Amino acid sequence: MLLLTFVVLLAGCNRPHEEIVLRQIRDVVVDANSEPMLRANAIFFNPNKVRGKLKRINVDIYINGKKSARVDQKLRTEIPAQKEFSVPLEVKLAIKELGFMDTLLGMIGGKKLEVRYQGYLKLTYHGFPIRVPVDYTDNIRISF
């Protein structure tokens, strides 16, 4: 009887049916100093009628096909139901991987870069952990 009650309660929980979607990376700024940083706002959309919490972002960043950074942030961000939400990102770029001279010349010339974000998000809905894949590509222009 106790097992049956638990199963009925678990089935009745409003678990999300659709995945959260990374819609856009906005306000991308690359600070070109001795330790270059990429700052941006990731815009997500939760299509579900259930609120949740974003617990972790684990995303690799590739610039022009080369792994240049990793976002590994622990968070406690509330995810609203059926709405967009924003998550600030701040990442140290690995200039050695990109090639210092190419990057410097690209900044002077206002070069466009292809930036790919690939990894996953860890969320919880009513205490249940969920992993949501992220695979998003954008082109940005960097300059001084």
Automatic annotation (TrEMBL):
Domain of life from the UniProt record: Bacteria
Database matches in Gene3D superfamilies: 2.60.40.1820
Domain Late embryogenesis abundant protein LEA-2 subgroup: 46-135
InterPro entries with a match to the protein in the record: LEA_2
Stored SUPFAM superfamilies: LEA14-like (SSF117070)
Protein name from the UniProt record: Late embryogenesis abundant protein LEA-2 subgroup domain-containing protein
Lineage: Bacteria, Pseudomonadati, Bacteroidota, Cytophagia, Cytophagales
